[in-house]
Amino acid sequence: MMTGKPFASFVVAAAVSLIAIPERAIALPPAEDTPEEVLRNEILLEARSPLDGEPLTPAEYAALQAQLQEPTQPPQLSSEIRYNIFLLQLLRMFRTLSPF
Known about the structure:
By secondary structure, the chain is mainly alpha-helical. It has helices spanning 4-26, 36-41, 58-69, 79-97; strands spanning 47-48, 55-56.
């Protein structure tokens, strides 16, 4: 008599999944939207600066992106912050060596 319960639950699960399919179809984008894969492969003919929003040519945009990606100088910390870091490292060393 146990064979009827798994079959009934399978039928109920199949019915629920068939009912849920039309709801997923509503969430699809409209047919006139351009797919993201196509947009990624398009060549930029006009661009805007991420800094101030002014229009740039593709060559200027590529140069600006390269300039923004390469680090100019390492970040400099003030002497007070470096001293505090040194003291924290010294305190950590004492805590590992000392049982108290």
